[in-house]
From TrEMBL:
The lineage of its organism: Eukaryota, Metazoa, Chordata, Craniata, Vertebrata. Residues 27-281 form the Reverse transcriptase domain. This is Reverse transcriptase domain-containing protein. PROSITE patterns: RT_POL. It comes from Salmo trutta. SUPFAM superfamilies: DNA/RNA polymerases.
């Protein structure tokens, strides 16, 4: 079983176990080693919606479960790693995922504020929403470990993360049956405590690629939002954005990541006196045309930023966004 001792029982007697648990964590950190039993995952297929056909495998979402003790060890590492990254200003300021005090709401506020400011200054804007395919599963371990070295993570800390990433396996549990173990050779662990932070460090260098083309960006986990505001008379906009996306594609390939073109969206917000009211860009040799609205982190944005609710959408987030405009800049760092 994944947890031979139920977590509820461990929590009940935690006072008696605390010295032993502390010793286990310290030994793991000092040795730079993660016990193999902590690197086993149990994957449970979960039906995405109760109304979907349970006989269609595409209607299931894999949920990865890890042991209670392994996640306790990860939390100890997360605390120290986050402190080091914060003190040395090594976190991407434009990443709202996995940061204390940040959420999808802060990411939305930053993007919306940037678009509203551009509109107030009579500029046109393009919002490009990028989505990655199975991003957490394709992370290359050697590239990630090299990135961590560049951030100054070395010695036992680096060895511990290398041990944490390698030698992992998973089993699929369905009803009363459990599959044979299968090895995981790429990716950061799904359902883990550390995985999201490691992914954000893995993708940090993408920001410099975007900025080199004059575009701004904001991220939440693997959702990347590109913003380009420009004078309405600029007739090279599509070429400049496409050039940026071409370099992003090169970066993605080098980092073993892949854009999900089916979920890549373009929202064009024309400024005052703009001579054109739509835009087409090139992404991986495919054309993407602007639409009247796009869903960003669960909230539908339209090309006038009116936040007019569509049937079946939640009204509350967009209402909060309208009220919050004006103080968003204090959250965008």
């Amino acid at each position: 079983p994944l947890n031979p001792i139920p977590s509820s029982l461990l929590q009940t007697i935690s006072g008696d176990l605390l010295p032993y648990l502390t010793s286990l964590i310290n030994s793991s950190l000092t040795a730079g080693y993660v016990p193999s039993v902590f690197k086993r995952a149990r994957v449970a297929p979960l039906l995405k919606k109760p109304t979907l056909d349970p006989s269609d495998i595409n209607n299931y979402r894999p949920v990865s479960l890890l042991s209670f003790l392994s996640k306790t060890l990860e939390r100890a590492v997360l605390g120290q790693l986050s402190c080091y990254l914060s003190q040395n200003d090594l976190l991407d300021p434009n990443q709202s995922g996995f940061k204390t005090g940040h959420s999808t709401e802060t990411a939305l506020l930053c993007v919306t504020e940037a678009l509203r400011t551009a509109k107030a200054n009579s500029l046109s804007s393009a919002l490009i929403l990028l989505d990655l395919s199975a991003a957490f599963d394709t992370v290359n371990h050697q590239i990630l470990l090299s990135t961590l070295s560049e951030l100054g993570i070395s010695g036992a800390a680096h060895a511990w993360i290398a041990s944490y990433l390698t030698g992992r396996s998973y089993q699929v549990a369905w009803r009363e049956s459990v599959s044979a173990p299968r090895a995981l050779t790429t990716g950061v662990p799904q359902g883990s405590v550390l995985g999201p932070l490691l992914f954000s460090l893995y993708t940090k260098s993408l920001g410099s690629v975007i900025s080199s083309h004059g575009l701004s960006y904001h991220c939440y986990a693997d959702d990347t939002q590109l913003i380009f505001s420009f004078p309405p008379s600029d007739n090279q906009v599509a070429n400049r954005i496409s050039a940026c996306l071409a370099d992003i594609s090169v970066w993605m390939t080098a980092h073993h990541l892949k854009l999900n073109l089916g979920k890549t969206e373009l929202l064009f917000l024309p400024g005052k006196d703009c001579p054109f009211h739509d835009l087409t860009i090139t992404v991986d040799n495919s054309l993407v045309s602007s639409s009247q609205s796009a869903k960003n982190l669960g909230v539908t944005l339209d090309n006038t930023l009116s936040f007019s609710p569509s049937p079946g959408t939640c009204h509350l987030p967009s209402g909060l966004l309208q009220l919050a405009v004006g103080w968003a800049p204090c959250l965008c760092h």
